[in-house]
Structure formats: structure tokens, C-alpha cells
Amino acid sequence: MHPSEKEFADLLDYYQINYLYEPRSFPLRWDGSRVVEMFTPDFYLPEYDQYFELTTMKQNLVTQKNRKLRRVREMYPEVNVQLLYRKDLMRLMGKYGFGPLSGVSVEGTERVLFDEALVQRRVRELGAQITEDYAGEEPVLIGVLRGVVVFMADLMRAVDLPVQVEFMEITHYGEERQESLDVIRDVTTDLSGRHALVVEDIADTGLTLRYLREHLQAKGPASLRVCALLDKSVRRMTNVRLDYVGFEIPDEFVIGYGLDYGGRYRNLPYIGVLQPLEPKAVAQR
Length: 285
Ligand code: 5GP
Hints:
Structural class: alpha/beta
CATH topology of the largest domain: Rossmann fold
Number of helices: 7
Helix content: 25-40%
Order of helices and strands: HEEEEEHEHEHEHEEEHEEEEH
Distance between the termini: 42 Å
CATH class of the largest domain: Alpha Beta
Shape: elongated
Strand content: 25-35%
Bound molecules: guanosine-5'-monophosphate
């Protein structure tokens, strides 16, 4: 009946959750034997014995609906009904990075670039490619903390070979990232004669990767390659070779799937563009 109901239904379908649409009406008031008021929740999820009523309406109508819902709960205490506001629905959609709805705005995300399913699929493809290319070897995957943790966790499980996993940490000095880099945590595995694969969340200017390459090359690996989930190649300032790339992205600041803004948003399951702060919000800071 309503686009939001369609969105919710699509989400349930996608996750193969059974539901019934408006299967039951609850009489609330009678005039003699005639029912004059009733409540028909939008969805029923039989496996969870849970009704859902979606509301996207104006506040005064929401108040009315809330009153009805209170009455249902009083009269039918065994019935579980949950009201979902528009923002609840948006959060659900954002959380699951749902395909056709991936353009919806959720707090912090202006729009979803790659939803969860797409990211997972691409990471599996990268894993399969790496498995093929390193067949018979035991590569050392080297991640740079902290943005890479989510990607690394998924990628290493998509590689069907014995692997070792290492993490490095580096700091950037100065205002501009390119000014100076330093390793604060180095790999502990002896890389000489080993096949090293640097795993990065994003290649932006490429300066971090160039530095890493030089640093790791000095340890005498048999081979040294780079796998970057995201490639913002328009910003490249140095010619650094990327052997595996998940997605090309435009010149926008992205968050999610390990990538942060001010330490937040790393746990989003999708990759999205950061919502620029509204002027009002900036003024309040
Ligand atoms: P580069 O040395 O290639 O300029 O910098 C790469 C690092 O910059 C990444 O590992 C990441 O930490 C950070 N970075 C670059 N672009 C973005 C972005 O769009 N979003 C986030 N969250 N981090 C970024």
C-alpha cells in the first residue's frame, strides 16, 4: 500500500524472512455488536510471532496511532506489536546496506556506494584470484592498522591457502600526510624469501603504499604485491602499482567497512560517502 511497506517487504524477502501482510485485524471498539474501531498491523512475522506497524506519517497521526497501539496492548496482551518509525526503517536499511535502497540516507552516510552484499561478493572474488595466483605458496598478508581490519578479516577467509597474517602501524607527521611517515609497529615474521602481500583499505595519494613498499622491499621478500580494496586513483600523487583492486572510487571521503571518520563508522557493513555536516551543525560545534 505504501512505498515504505514495499521497502520493508523487500528487506524481509532479501533475508528470506517469512511474513504475512495485514493478516489480522484487532477490534478495539464496538457499538453494540458492530466493530467501530480496529487496528490492522502491516506485517506479521510468524517465526518471531511479531507484528510490525510502519509509520511515516505526521506527528499528530503518529500520536493517534500510538494511542491505538496502547489499546491493542491492553486488550491483547499476548500480541507483540512493534511500531517502526521512518527513522527506524532507514536505520535498518542502512544497517543491511540493502541493494535497491542503498541510496537512502542514514546518519553519517550521505549515500551508500557499495552495499554489504556487493562488498562481500567482491572480497570473495579477490580471495579467489589470490588463491589462484599464489597456488602452492604460503603468502604473508600484511595489513596496515586500523582501517584494514574488516577487509583483512573477510579477505583472509576468502583465501583458500595457508596464509600468515601480519599487521603494521604507521604514523603520519605534519599537516599533510605526505610530509613524513614512520613505522610504529613492524611485521614480526621474517619476510626474506617469502611472498608478501600488502593489504590496504584504500589507496588515495598512494604515498603510504609507496613508503610501505620501500620499507618491506628492504626485508628481501621473494615477491611483494599490493591489494587495495578501494582505489581513489584521481588523487594519486605517486605512481604505485596496485596488483589487486576491489573498487575504483571517485574523489569523495568514504566511511564504513573499517574506514573511519574521527574514529567512527568503522563498523558499518557497507561503504558509503560521508554526510557533509550541515552548516547549522558546524556552527554548533
Ligand atoms: P594515501 O597515502 O594513499 O594518501 O593514504 C591512504 C590512507 O588515507 C588510507 O589508508 C586511509 O587511512 C586514509 N584515507 C584516504 N582516503 C580516505 C577516505 O576516503 N576515507 C577514509 N576513511 N580514509 C581515507
